[in-house]
Amino acid sequence: MKEQEYLYWLCRVPGAGPVTIQKLYERYGSFGAIYNMEGRRFREDGLTDQKTAEQFDRWKARLFETTEEYRALGSRGIRFVSVLDQEYPERLRHIYGNPAGLYVKGRLPDDSLPSAAIVGARNCTSYGFQVARMLGAALAGEGVQVVSGMAAGVDRAGHEGALMSGGSTFAVLGSGVDVCYPAGHIALYEEIQGRGGVISEFPLKTKALAGNFPARNRIISGLSDLVIVVEARVRSGSLITAELALEQGKDVYAVPGMVTEELSRGCNQLIRQGAGIVTSPEDVLEFFQIKRDKMLKLREKNDKVLAKKEKKVYSCLNLQPKFIDQVAEDSGLTLSDCMTVLLELELRGYVEQPAGHYYVRKI
Amino acid sequence: MFGKVCGIGLLGVEGCLVHVEVDVQDGLPAFIMVGALAPEVREAQDRVRTALRNADFRFPPKKVTVNLSPADVRKSGTGFDLAIAAAVLGAYGMVAWREFEDAVFLGELGLDGRIKPVRGVLPMVMEARRRGKRRCYLPEENVREGRVIPDIEITGVADIPGLVSQLRCPGKKAAAGKGQPPASAGPFPETYDVDYEDLQGQALMRRATEVAVAGRHNLLYIGPAGTGKTMAAKRIPTIMPSCSREEQLEITKIYSICGLLPKEQPFMSGRPFRSPHHSVTVQALTGGGRDPSPGEMSLASGGVLFLDELPEFSKQVIETLRQPLESRSVVLSRVCGRYEFPADFMLVAAANPCPCGHYPDRNRCRCSEAQIRRYLGKISKPILDRIDICTETSPVGFDELKGGKKAESSARIRARVEAVRQIQKRRFAGRKIGFNSQMTAADLQVFCRLKRQEELFFRNFYQRNGLSVRAYSKILKVARTIADLDGSEEIGYAHLCEAVGYRSLEAKYWKSPGGLEPEGRRP
After folding, report:
1. Mean pLDDT (whole number) for A325-343
2. pLDDT of residue A306
3. Are B203 and A328 inside 8 Å of each other by CB?
4. Which residues of A touch B516 (CB under 8 A)?
5. CATH number, domain containing residue A257
6. Residues A237 and A164 reside in one and the same domain
7. How confident is the model at residue B516 (pLDDT cuts 50, 70, 90)?
8. In this structure, which of A95, B169, B252, B523 has its CB flanked by the most CB atoms within 10 Å?
9. Rounded mean pLDDT of B186-212?
């Protein structure tokens, strides 16, 4: 019986959180020893409460079952990387309450490469989505590993950006590593496995429970050197991640937004409190001391190649969704001209439609 | 002793001539009625007997047999009372029934001998004329409605004594008829109390509506509450081609059967607009009952069926729309027969973009992507397949509300729509279809040929966005209508671009968060 197998069993015991496991390990010296201990002892030593101690005793009988499960992980393309392993991320070893083991599909972030987390609201605006995608692409393009949570909105945009530029990206889930949540992101889930990894500390088949997400957020910030918050409301999960990052001694950056926008209030508040400000990917790359020959610009699109009408329409648009009626009025074109030009611009990648007949510039 | 007159009943939307035969014989006194009768027709015996007695007609006790022929057709409704009364009077020899073989009698009797109005007078009088009848005796209240039909003499009767005096000296009818409006009322001009002028701003919505009406495409509005979706839909009848006399009659027939005609002007001059609530049942939509009466779909025939809050309608209700949308009629089968009601309506639907209704304004809308997808996902896919044009509406700005310039009137839009309908009439002459929206795949080959440049563009677009075959043909059909509106023989680049903009819901919302796939991004 290997230590890892005892550890795997320990991780499966309900109520045995990372902090408890660490305390037990420090006290008794090996996971095998913990298994052979009576649950009563843990309570007497003041390491667990009555309920957890009883759980330990109850789960002892299931060692065979968990070991079978552990050994079968490989055939499902999943690895269980524990603190005992060399491969366990260095960054995580130093945070409080680091998980005793991680389920991984794909790879874990490379300790020698820089990594950044991109987090933000799920119900983001198209501004947030585009900025997150652009940052993901720019950072990953320079070799920065992009870590996020595979949620809708900003998380997804960060991953997509990284995938677009061919870099590596890692998703930390609030569910079991074999559960794709949200289910609609199945294509993203699979692509990330090929180009980085999907990571979770929760046992297989765990559903995405609301209580899991703060715990997941500590791993996101733990795996990164800095955390970028793209869009966040004042009381939101993204700000929790930022707080955890500060507790772990990581740097926090925020993307500013309009002061009137609900979804930018959280970010603006972070900036006021002293977070780094992201006005272009350079601000982040500077942190990693990565120099680029060519300046990256937020608005890379060159409108010089556009025809006259196209330029007229393009200049009416910004990052706030604008309805086509308004575009027609502002540009002075007829509605049907406007439709032709906008489709042309859309196909050439200059604008996009966040919702039907609403248009924004694409960056 | 024998007597026979003609009455008339309803089978679905058509009138059905019924001979009421009465035979009076010696024997045990009885009043027997036969001939596939619904309960309300069988009850007529009590109404007729009592009404006649109360009008001071005394009958010797005899065995009275009443037969309504053809005896195998089910008869329902209360309109046979008057014919039965007339036939009984004839059989007892109180009136000379042989002089009334070219007349039909229609009306319900009260116990006091008064004659009450009935429903469905218009189709019944039409049938009477078709069968060569020259005269029609109707309750006073129904006279105006009956006079809509030309070439048939309509006489109103108020009660049994009035009827008997009419029957005994038909010459007096002219006197009775005096003071009434001249025979055959109408024509009634088409009027609406709404107009497109009232709708400020909303250029896209106006344009999409015009295209939809011109090619008779079904239409879906998506937009926040209070952006004028219902307002625009209500005004669609005002821009549909004006009603011909035949169409008006067809529409009026249905309303007559349902008893929905206004008293002052018992005629539907304009196209109907029906907006059933989203709690509507299948039966209310298709029509129903043992002796089926028309439902909302038939009431909307010739006009607009508007389904507000489309995602809220029950799935079953929406599914029942599918077949009528194809066949343009509703068929209800019952034990006693098969009834066909018209359902030739334009389907217009409206939906909010998300449960709260404010998307994409993220300051007000907090609906998650999944919520929005679930909300719009409630709309049945098969019904979306039958909606060619899907357009968005946006909140109206203050400047538009203030309304510096007056919006275009319905009359001007209608003129353009009518021109396009003429083009379609010529195009589809000799074919079964009449509108661009009805084109089949084979018709698309013939009428929607693209020129080289356009075809290249469309092929590119088709492949890059992974359109379905259905989406492809919808875009082509709509592009055809847009080209027609433009007066162009060929479908041009701009027409295609606009049609692409109206493509259906699922292609626009959340397929990929950025909408269309840009060049250079692999799938």
Report:
1. 90
2. 80
3. yes
4. 346-347, 352-353
5. 3.40.50.450
6. yes
7. very low
8. B252
9. 86
Of the residues A165, A230, A353, A362, the best mutation for testing chain B's interface (the one with the most B CB atoms within 10 Å of its CB) is A353
Reported in sequence order, the residue ranges of chain A that DSSP labels E, i.e. its strands, are 79-82, 101-106, 115-119, 145-148, 169-172, 196-200, 226-229, 251-254, 276-277, 322-323, 351-355, 358-361
pLDDT surpassing 90 at residue A2: no
Whether residue B175 has pLDDT greater than 90: no
Cα gap B335→B327, rounded to integer Å:
23
Chain B, 388 to 417: residues with Cβ < 8 Å from chain A are 390-392, 394, 397
Q: Are residues A283 and A309 in the same domain?
A: no
Domain span at A186:
115-287
Number of residues assigned to chain B? 523
CATH for A330: 1.10.10.10
Question: What does the angle CA B460 – CA B463 – CA B466 come to, to the nearest 5 degrees?
Answer: 140
Token pair recorded at residue B175: 């006197």
**Chain centre to alpha carbon of residue B260:** 12
Following CA atoms B137, B142, B147, B151 in sequence, which dihedral angle do they give, to the nearest 10 degrees? -30
Could you tell me which of B219, B373, B365 has the C-alpha nearest to residue B311?
B373
ipTM, two decimals: 0.79
Please give the model's pTM, rounded to 2 decimal places.
0.82
Q: Which domains does chain B have, with CATH numbers?
A: 2-177 (3.30.230.10), 196-312+338-436 (3.40.50), 439-523 (1.10.8)
> Nearest Cβ partner of A355 from B207, B360, B373?
B360
Q: Which two tokens stand for residue B197?
A: 């002028």
